[in-house]
Amino acid sequence: MKARLPQGYGSNSMNPNNMIKQVQKVQADMQKAQEELEAKEYTSVVGGGAVEITMTGKKSVTSIKISPEVVDPDDIEMLEDLITAAVNDVIEKIEAESSETMSALSGSMPNIPGLF
Q1: Diameter of the chain measured on Cα atoms
Q2: pLDDT digits (tens, 9 = 90+) for 9-50
């Protein structure tokens, strides 16, 4: 007696070779997207232009610009707060774009029961 495959398993969409190829393509696309995101630069400007922070997608700071008007030796705390706000904002931008990009790519993964 010949074993029967589950319904739809023999179709092209459920062909194991096609699924493997599709998964490999999505993995390659995700790797490429990750590399592009890491190479990209992100900038945040806070305090009406008082502080500007630029980071790579790897969250490495490449530039900090501070407006001379905001440098007040009697109010270092305000400058510290502005720098903190700028760093946090640029990290949020990086994470949001990364999450959005990877979610879009992972949505193209084939639906393989029991895989995830």
Answers
A1: 88
A2: 444 556 778 888 888 888 888 899 889 999 999 999 999 999
